[in-house]
Amino acid sequence: MHVLGSRRRSQPAPPHIVWRSLRDPYEAGSRPWLELSDDEAPPRVVAGYAPVLLVWSSLWPHRPLDRIRFDLAALPASQECALRWTLTTDGELPSESTLGYLRHRLNYLINGRLRRSYGQ
After folding, report:
1. Residue 1, in any domain of the structure
2. Which domain of life is it from (predicted)?
3. How confident is the model at residue 28, as a pLDDT?
């Protein structure tokens, strides 16, 4: 398995709420945040252990062996959580330009759109 990228940042909601948002991004009553591009497909939950770990299948049909792992941890003296996404693959390594695009999309979706869905 190859690690293609990883980033840790706080989210303004507690781990159990963020975990639910990742488990079901289209849950009724939640704010929409997972807006996919034309070359992306909705992820499947491959593994999970609430509220500290969740693993998605690839967002990119042309890269089916990629996985996105989310590690969540409560931040001390806060209602926030630390969320780390890690992109891995058991397949071919992407080109540098593709790798940059994949990292950018995950950072935008998780540390941009998801974060703003909580009002931040």
Report:
1. no
2. Bacteria
3. 83
Overall domain count for the chain = 1
Phi, psi of 59 (to 5 degrees): -80, -15
Tell me how far apart the alpha carbons of residues 72 and 114 are, in angstroms, rounded to a whole number.
Answer: 14
CB contact set of 27 (below 8 Å; sequence gap of 6+): 20, 21
The residue type found at 98 is T
* CATH number for the domain harbouring residue 33: 3.30.530
pTM, full prediction: 0.95
C-alpha distances in angstroms, 15 versus 24, 25, 88, 104?
A: 14, 15, 22, 23
Instruction: Flag whether 13 is in a domain.
Output: yes
Residues of the chain with pLDDT under 70: 120
pLDDT at 120: 62
